[in-house]
Write a structure and sequence with these properties.
heteropentamer, A alpha/beta, B mainly alpha, C mainly alpha, D alpha/beta, B: mainly alpha, MetI-like fold, C: mainly alpha, about 80% helix, about 0% strand, globular, binds adenosine-5'-triphosphate, binds magnesium ion
Chain lengths: ~260, ~220, ~230, ~250, ~260
């Protein structure tokens, strides 16, 4: 996949995520069939495709939230396999995820939602954790909501808290599922800036999105999924300007 | 034959002390073992799950009276003489744990799967997922059935009369048999039980209200 | 060490009695569970959405019943009602008292389920124009009962075991039969063991039946394979 | 040897049910009282040891005895052949069981019970005896103890009840407006002091004691005080036990 | 507000929604302060604005889901007042709503989610209700998912079921809260077509959105909310081409 030049020293051409011929069904419904994908360290991959094409499922498989039926997935050197609890635990230290449905903890305040993993997993002190939490809350423009409970947030605020919660852990790989869907253009722009900074800092990001403008601007690589397969993939200029398949052409043509 | 007097009333009150002691034993022992049991019942390990299921099935299916009887006299018969209080504490713990464990399992399972996933994804280990995310949410829905069962325990300690405890209910029977004034006697028995159980109900309401904050 | 020789020979003469007792317990507890569950649902609904008066009355009912002994309640139905001219058989009194008792406990359990339904669900239902009754019926009750089903089942098994107390007012059931046999033979240990086994059998039977009902009632769990 | 043990300890643990007046109950000062209590007190005195009353209930009398939690049971134990297979008995009293009911209810003798609803204590002697002797159409309603049965009679759930004569006397005195009267004699059943099997020394001592107390009238004295009539002759019962000792 | 010419006969200039000086706080947080708005019958109004500016709250107030602290709201001739249950019930017959968080009923299948109100409220027969449900499911492209349960749906599918559920009831006024946020461009286009048909049929629609392209294309009127106030309102051409306030200018400028 494309490599973005950046000051980080690590070997950028080595793939940090390798998805190899992965298939997955829910009962009779085949959701992924033979998906293969490589993501290099520090790159930003956007996955686009129609609703129901398996984007969320692919992300969940990468993070060991779904059992796969066939194929292999390697992320940050870990062989992803739900059954192997020890590996899964190490995988979690390296991978962060933001869900399409946020999944904030309803019984905790915004601040506590963020500091939880910092204190419990990364063993930071309370004060330290809160400093980090306040910094990321500031990044997403929610410094004034730290004492609120999730049900007191608007849709966009909840989504930003979910983003902040993952960012605070500073993982090597971030998986974003439609992470700007509830954000207005202004905020989207701000979140985007944050992401670009992270990518420059060497973080690898995979994001599912249906906003083509966003994909075009941020991604090194765009992956178009269709019917559970990787239908086309390539740098955004190529994908958007010169689609090879009629499916992608149709998908793009309907944009507003 | 004599009539119900203040003396009888104090006799009942004195017997109620046993009811309280036995209830506290049941709460303490049953609460701890019950939590362990609930966690075993939702464990990922099949063997653990299976064993816990058997335990729940057997103990829930056996009347407390029988558990008490067998652990006191039964052990005696095979040569272990144990103290009545120990036998009662042991039986009540076994029994309470089976029911609390089952109640709590239901509450744990009612926390949406997505909450587990989110907790898992930020790197919490299994114990931390329980402690920080799942149990706090399960507790709210667990309070009413838990308290409901606890007030039943208070009353079920009366079965310990089978192994010789003269607790409130047995004392009521003795008084009734001496005075033949069942309504008066049992109204007082009921009032004393009410005085012991109602605070539990009040506490339950209080905690329910408190836990509602932010939910 | 006490030398005691176990002797189960009495079973030869009495096994039909045990069986009959078990049958009577099933009828007694079964009817009380059905009635008590219905009562519990009605009370839970009134408690959460029935207005101030209804909710206060139900609250008082729940507190009084939960915090006083079952035996006293049974005595009041059996010995107290005749004083106002209503004389019921022991079995009828037992079923009524047990149902009233279970109703109080189940209503609290179901209430906690009702209160755990997300507010968004209620809003969505209201916005579709469903009336209050319809919201309860279609949106709240089934998920509420589904969530608290394990606790309800435990409560029902408790009721089945507690039905033994009704032998005190001459209701015929398992414990009553066992007491007769024990008084005749003095084989307390053996009788207790047999009773334990029969009750265990009964409770496994009740659990299986309740599980089956759960599987039939909660279609979604069945289809998605979520355990009950 | 239980007898030696008791003497060595200087204390005898006697199991008594304090919930079955007039045998065992609490008096106005909430002290144990009743026929069994008086007999147990005398027994301990004559044995020269202290008395420790172990409170039991109907169902756990035997388990307490068999698991050494009491030395003997003096608790209105009716002697039956089936029970004799499990514990040994030394007779000390009798239980005269009658059926009584309010005056205005028509029932005379056991035949008069036909079609009537009679309350009994489940599994007690009156239950088994009436099941055998009462006419087919008699309805026996079974309760757990005398107090409940009495309540059933007073609230009209049953028409008459069967109980020891002593209870009838008590009730007649206490509820004069009920106009209770005896209707039929059911049985006179010897009651025994219960002890564990294979204790010949203790059994022999108890038998001697019972015979002596019977002869000197002290058992009769207690009986008359509580049951309102003389204690019938127990000699033939003693002989049966004496024979079993050899 | 602007009137769209259409074949429906009713008086189109008469306002069907009148929001007059409405204020609303959650404890110390003021969310709406003096909002006034009129929506004419058959028009399509888009509400845009930053996250947390009170868009969802305004919609919820219109549908009697939140108590208002001051002001009045009239919708379809009903005086909206949460306390007056009889009116609220009549209001609900006339108004449909799609939530930002979908709020599908998890214990019912997709089909039953839709037929529920048809049978329970509109007293249609089961067969009739299912015909209607299948038709609207077809409109949103989910004919094959009728037997699925909500947790088996992808984000976009759930959102479309929520739309279908409201459409099936055919209300006079529809309130949409970020109704295309989980939809890809192709689907957004399809949903849009459905909406345009409905508007032509005389349905009044108020929709909150943060996709300016969508607002530009569908709305007769665009309302820009800022800090709980209606900051600017007007036809889309005017709002997007010629913003009057610096806030709106900034909001629009950050679009991707
Ligand atoms: N129940 C509540 N308690 C306290 N504050 C609340 C509550 N609900 C909403 N708020 C606050 O009200 C403000 C407006 O919320 P609202 O949901 O209307 O925003 P919105 O414009 O829909 O935003 P978004 O585009 O992010 O969905 C937010 O700041 C939010 O935090
Ligand atoms: N638990 C499940 N059981 C059955 N089918 C499922 C389940 N989860 C997802 N599916 C199906 O798998 C398909 C892919 O779902 P997925 O969530 O991956 O789609 P997506 O590409 O993320 O779509 P969207 O853009 O709408 O979020 C969908 O058709 C969905 O119905
Ligand atoms: Mg998705
Ligand atoms: Mg909103």
């Amino acid at each position: 996949m494309a490599i973005k030049d950046s000051p980080a020293p690590a070997d950028r051409s080595e793939p940090i995520i390798v998805v190899d011929s992965v298939s997955k069904s829910f009962g009779p419904v085949t959701v992924l069939s033979g998906v293969s994908l490589e993501v290099t360290r520090g790159s930003m991959v956007a996955i686009v495709g129609r609703s129901g094409s398996g984007k969320s499922t692919l992300l969940r498989c990468m993070n060991a939230l779904e059992e796969i039926d066939a194929g292999t997935i390697r992320v940050c050197g870990h062989n992803v396999d739900m059954a192997d609890r020890a590996t899964v635990r190490r995988l979690r230290d390296d991978v962060g995820m933001v869900f399409q449905s946020y999944n904030l903890f309803p019984h905790l305040t915004v601040l506590r939602n963020i500091t939880l993993a910092l204190t419990a997993v990364q063993k930071k002190s309370k004060a330290e954790a809160e400093t980090v939490a306040r910094r990321v809350l500031g990044l997403v423009g929610l410094a004034d909501k730290e004492a609120a409970y999730p049900e007191q947030l608007s849709g966009g605020q909840a989504q930003r808290v979910a983003i902040a919660r993952s960012l605070a852990l500073n993982p090597k790989v971030m998986l974003f599922d439609e992470v700007t869907s509830a954000l207005d253009p202004e905020l989207t722009g701000e979140v985007l800036k944050v992401m670009e900074d992270l990518a420059t800092g060497g973080m690898t990001m995979v994001l599912v999105t249906h906003e083509m403008g966003f994909a075009k601007r941020v991604a090194d690589t765009v992956v178009f999924m269709h019917q559970g397969k990787v239908w086309e993939a390539g740098p955004p200029e190529k994908i958007f300007a010169d689609p090879q398949t009629p499916e992608l052409r149709q998908f793009l043509s309907s944009g507003l | 034959m004599n009539t119900f007097s203040t003396g009888h009333f104090f006799y009942l009150i004195e017997a109620a002390r046993w009811t309280i002691v036995l209830s506290l034993l049941a709460f303490a022992g049953g609460g701890i073992l019950g939590l362990v049991l609930a966690l075993c019942r939702v464990s990922e390990n099949r063997v653990v799950r299976f064993l816990a299921t058997i335990y729940v099935q057997v103990i829930q299916g056996t009347p407390l009276l029988v558990v008490l009887f067998l652990s006191y006299y039964g052990l005696s018969i095979i040569g272990y003489n144990i103290d009545a209080l120990l036998a009662a504490g042991f039986s009540l713990t076994l029994y309470t744990a089976a029911f609390l464990g089952e109640i709590w399992r239901g509450c744990i399972l009612s926390v949406p799967k997505t909450q587990w996933e989110a907790a898992n994804c930020i790197g919490l280990n299994r114990a931390q997922q329980y402690y920080y995310v799942v149990l706090p949410q399960a507790v709210r829905i667990a309070i009413p059935p838990t308290v409901g069962f606890m007030v039943q325990i208070v009353k079920n300690t009366s079965l310990a009369s089978i192994i010789g405890f003269v607790e409130l209910t047995r004392a009521g029977q003795v008084v009734n048999n001496s005075t033949f004034q069942p309504f008066l006697t049992f109204v007082f028995v009921a009032l004393i039980y009410f005085a012991m159980c109602y605070p539990l109900s009040l506490a339950s309401r209080y905690f329910e209200r408190r836990l509602k904050v932010g939910n | 060490m006490v030398s005691y020789v176990f002797n189960f020979s009495f079973l030869e003469r009495t096994w039909t009695q045990f069986l009959m007792g078990a049958g009577q317990t099933i009828v007694l507890a079964g009817s009380a569970i059905v009635l008590g569950f219905i009562l519990g649902v009605v009370c839970a609904v009134l408690r959460t959405g029935g207005g101030r008066v209804a909710s206060t009355i139900v609250g008082a009912y729940v507190e009084v019943i939960r915090n006083t002994p079952l035996l006293v309640q049974i005595f009041i139905v059996y010995f107290g009602l005749p004083t106002i001219g209503l004389r019921l058989s022991a079995e009828a009194s037992a079923i009524i008292a047990l149902a009233i008792n279970t109703g109080a406990y189940s209503s609290e359990i179901i209430r906690s389920g009702i209160e755990s339904i997300a507010r968004g669900q209620l809003e969505a239902a209201e916005c579709l124009g469903l009336s209050r009754v319809q919201v309860y019926w279609h949106i709240i009750l089934l998920p509420a009962i589904e969530r608290t089903y394990p606790a309800l089942c435990s409560q029902f098994v408790l009721l089945m075991l507690a039905s033994s107390i009704t032998s005190q007012i001459s209701a015929q059931e398992l414990t009553a039969e066992a007491n007769i046999i024990q008084a005749e033979t003095f084989r307390s240990f053996e009788v207790y063991l047999v009773v334990a086994v029969v009750y265990l059998g009964l409770s496994i039977l009740f659990r299986a039946a309740l599980h089956l009902i759960g599987v039939l009632a909660f279609v979604r769990r069945r289809r998605l394979g979520t355990p009950l | 040897d239980a007898l030696a043990d008791i003497r060595e300890r200087g204390e005898i643990a006697i199991a008594i049910d304090l919930g079955v007046p007039p045998w065992g109950m609490l008096d106005a000062d909430l002290k144990p009282a009743g026929a069994d209590v008086e007999i147990a007190t005398k027994l301990a005195e004559d044995l020269g040891v202290n008395l420790r009353i172990v409170e039991v209930t109907g169902p756990n009398r035997v388990p307490f005895l068999l698991t050494n939690k009491a030395d003997i049971v003096v608790s209105s134990f009716a002697i039956t052949p089936e029970r004799a297979e499990v514990v040994d008995f030394v007779p000390y009293s009798v239980n005269r069981l009658i059926v009584f009911a309010p005056k205005d209810i028509e029932m005379n003798g056991l035949e008069g019970l036909a079609g009537k609803n009679i309350g009994v204590v489940r599994g007690n002697l009156q239950d088994t005896e009436l099941t055998k002797k009462a006419p087919e159409s008699t309805i026996l309603t079974r309760y757990d103890d005398d107090a409940t049965t009495i309540q059933a009679l007073l609230s009209g759930q049953v028409e008459g009840m069967s109980a020891p004569y002593g209870i009838y006397l008590n009730l007649a005195e206490r509820f004069p407006d009920q106009n209770l009267e005896p209707k039929a004699d059911v049985v006179q059943q010897p009651l025994g002091i219960g002890l564990r099997q294979n204790e010949p020394e203790l059994k022999a001592w108890l038998l001697d004691w019972a015979e002596k107390s019977h002869a000197d009238g002290s058992l009769n004295e207690v009986f008359e005080a509580y049951m309102g009539g003389p204690l019938p002759d127990l000699t033939s019962e003693f002989e049966l036990v004496r024979a079993s000792l050899q």
